[in-house]
Design brief:
Helices cover about 20% and strands about 35% of the residues. The strands form 4 sheets. Strands 6, 7, 8, 9, 10 and 11 form a 6-stranded mixed sheet that branches. Strands 2-1-5 form a 3-stranded antiparallel sheet, with helices on one face. The protein has a two-stranded antiparallel ribbon with strand order 3-4. It has a domain of about 120 residues. The chain is an alpha+beta fold.
């Protein structure tokens, strides 16, 4: 993904020029190496239930309810399979949603909140998510989650953020690779007083919504930005 989208890197010279793909055809398994520009660049993004804090659950477990393969660049896996007349094509990736990925989402949301609140955090009564970020607590699923398995339309920008205020709780909705229709995640960052809310300096162009995510018969739906 980093190579296909040409993300910044301190070691660009070490990026591979070819990547392996396992295919099965005519009853045989074989590994083929494709040039990066001809490789299906995809990323597997998990679907999470709402954070326990918003869902009213007693447990603090991050609930993974599925996954979505997001195609970012290059040919689709189906196109590659047809090219080789393959019965199947596969590749392997390692993913750790409870640890590294969930903390990354929390860090992104926390950093965005600091932009609005200020580095001294004086406008926060409590920063819920900070102990989990620092690995001082094991309650990441209480503050970090998703919008179920809702499929959202793509956004114009590569990544998308929304700031949300609900009875003093500050949430940040984080949508990585929103341009490609990837899922949206929710982080309950902390609590801020009503007086402090009026003093927050939202980043230019920020989307602000009020109220909790709302459930519908089709799943979980978020309030429209306003």
């Amino acid at each position: 993904m980093r190579t296909a989208l040409d993300f910044p890197s301190r070691r660009k010279q070490d990026r591979p020029r070819e990547l392996p793909l396992s295919i099965e055809w005519e009853g045989k398994s074989e590994t083929v190496y494709l040039p990066v520009e001809g490789y299906p660049a995809t990323i597997n993004m998990p679907f999470f239930d709402l954070p326990a804090y918003l869902d009213g659950r007693a447990d603090q477990r991050l609930r993974w309810v599925g996954a979505m393969l997001v195609h970012l660049a290059g040919p689709t896996p189906e196109d590659v399979g047809r090219r080789f007349s393959a019965q199947s094509a596969s590749f392997t990736a390692t993913f750790e949603p409870v640890g590294a990925f969930a903390r990354m989402l929390a860090k992104i949301a926390y950093g965005c909140a600091v932009v609005a609140v200020g580095c001294d955090l004086s406008k926060f009564d409590d920063v819920y998510v900070l102990p989990a970020i620092l690995e001082q607590s094991d309650d990441i699923g209480r503050w970090v989650g998703g919008m179920g398995n809702n499929l959202l339309p793509p956004e114009r920008d590569l990544h998308y953020l929304k700031f949300c205020l609900d009875n003093g709780d500050l949430r940040v909705h984080v949508r990585l690779f929103a341009q490609f229709g990837a899922p949206e995640y929710v982080v309950v960052v902390g609590r801020t007083s009503h007086k402090a809310v009026t003093e927050l300096e939202w980043p230019e162009g920020a989307h602000l919504i009020k109220g909790p995510p709302r459930r519908t018969t089709a799943g979980i739906e978020d309030e429209s930005p306003r």
